[in-house]
């Protein structure tokens, strides 16, 4: 009988997959800017990728109906952040462990500023990782979702979506050489940019410019020159 683990995201297999994600994410997000980024993750102690043009990260662990880390709150309520507060939002396996998938994605979109980047990673439900997750997790099984579903949600919410990527090894393994992107990788990555509102051009309005009056007239003549001739 296989030994169940309380947290598959703490296993060496998933830790290696997280490292592969960072390897692929870092060059994709190098141009992201802003004062703050939001890192929503299923893994305890997972570090976000280093982005030199970004000010600070807020890291929040998502576990069912609970949020922990830099923010301790209920996962059943809206995220405790203002609208458009972050230049980049990373959902790293967070949609697999949240109690309300659609709500968490809606909240991630809400707190992302126009022009900002959102990235979603997860374990692909098609492949050898899926049965491994089922065997290891028992009842506390992550909810693996097709990346196509998140792609459709982002397109519907007016995002510019890049091509989904597969990454990591084809089967769970704790060691071995770094893989990065792979056509049959066990993980997936979606990156999209939130479109800015379209600028509404102002209609130019003709301005009345008074006709200059020569300064050679006497003061009385200058005054009468502005009056209409009957």
UniProtKB/TrEMBL annotation:
Residues 70-120 form the Methyltransferase type domain. GO terms for biological process: methylation. Pfam families: Methyltransf_11 (PF08241). InterPro entries: Methyltransf_11, SAM-dependent_MTases_sf. The keyword Secreted does not apply. It comes from the Bacteria. GO terms for molecular function: S-adenosylmethionine-dependent methyltransferase activity. Keywords: Methyltransferase, Transferase. The keyword Methyltransferase applies. This is Class I SAM-dependent methyltransferase. It comes from Luteibacter pinisoli.
